[in-house]
Amino acid sequence: MMKHTLFTPGPTNVPPEVLAALGRPIVHHRAPDFDPVFKTAREGLQYVFRTRNPVVPLTSSGTGGMEAAVTSLLSPGDKAIAIEGGKFGERWGQICKAFGINCVIEKIDWSTSATPELIEKLLRQHPDAKAVLTTHCETSTGALTDIEGIAKVVAGTGAVLVTDAVSSLGAEPLETDKWGVDVVVTGSQKALMLPPGMAFVSVSPKAEAMIQSAKSACYYFSLKKALKSLAENTTPWTGPVSMIVALNAAIELIRKTGLEKIWERHTRCATAIRQGCAALGLPLFSKSPSNVVVALTMPEGVDASKLVKTMRDTFGMTITGGQEHLKGKIIRIAALGFVEEFDVLALIGALEMALLRQGCACEAGSGVGAALKSLNTTMSI
Ligand code: PMP
């Protein structure tokens, strides 16, 4: 028997209270019993999204939420701008292509993220663009984007700002209303501490107006239909009732701690991981690192896939490797969702042992020592 912990940027560990909620008897989605459950979920989602806008729940993984945003906002032939700084930025372009949207794809170095200046330049070049498609945390590289700054640039134009916050919502500060982000997409299996299977999409009045006038190429993923049902406290199709019950349990836990405190914990844990890994000789991959997932460049002689395998199969801790051209070059570690400070010490300890087993010249205890020192200065208790 081995205890398994996920240190991945999704799916993440699910707390016992949420697992127990998933096991409750099924309530019919059109029965009066479900009405207060769904209302609580709608309000809870507004709490985590920091918005008064409606937040649409969808039965799909995060990509379904991205597809719903593109196809509901834009009509075939419309122009959009997407930033490709990793796998998930690339996905915006691929969704647009699949639905006949004219997408201007701006490729940037995968170790960087889009700046407000870049978006301003692109919008000047393409004043007819109807949407700017961004990625808050690019999970494939660990990079965080300045969505607050980008929102200021987009606000003065006719375009809507759409942000993929699938991995970041609930882990990094994201102020949907204060910053003025029109559409925010997230998924259940990340900081919300639920199993995979749901996406959530917030819609501002500016975005809703665009949705109402679009000649959308969508049916099941129509945000227009979903918003109409949401106003009547329901879903257009059979909702994932057990997941919604579990969502309420998860948001109750989030509310108990407080979103700001949770953001702080993610910062603390990611900082400790960065410090521990720096002491082990693993440099950061991204120049704008997030607290969602830490991407580390593998030094010469370290086999990344062997490291991931040892961590998982020998020590029971799942981390991930790189994707596409970063395969074998980086590893990615996330203390996302239901992970605490002392879990990070165990993780760095295991990583250190896995590196020592590959013949790395790191000094035993140096990584754990650095992570511990970091936590000791940042933990208030
Ligand atoms: N965007 C980002 C930033 C993600 O991290 C992920 C999931 N790793 C997705 C989109 C896609 O979500 P899903 O796999 O749930 O469809």
Plain-language structure description:
The protein has 381 residues and is of the alpha/beta class. It folds into 2 domains: 16-256, Aspartate Aminotransferase, domain 2 (3-Layer(aba) Sandwich), CATH 3.40.640.10; 259-378, Alpha-Beta Complex (Aspartate Aminotransferase, domain 1). 44% of the residues lie in helices and 14% in strands. Strands 2-10-9-8-5-3-4 form a 7-stranded mixed sheet, sandwiched between helices. A 3-stranded antiparallel sheet has the order 11-14-13, with helices on one face. A two-stranded parallel ribbon has the order 1-12. Helix 5 packs parallel to helix 6 (147-155) and helix 11 runs antiparallel to helix 14 (366-378). It is globular and about 60 Å long. The mean pLDDT is 97. 4'-deoxy-4'-aminopyridoxal-5'-phosphate binds next to helix 3.
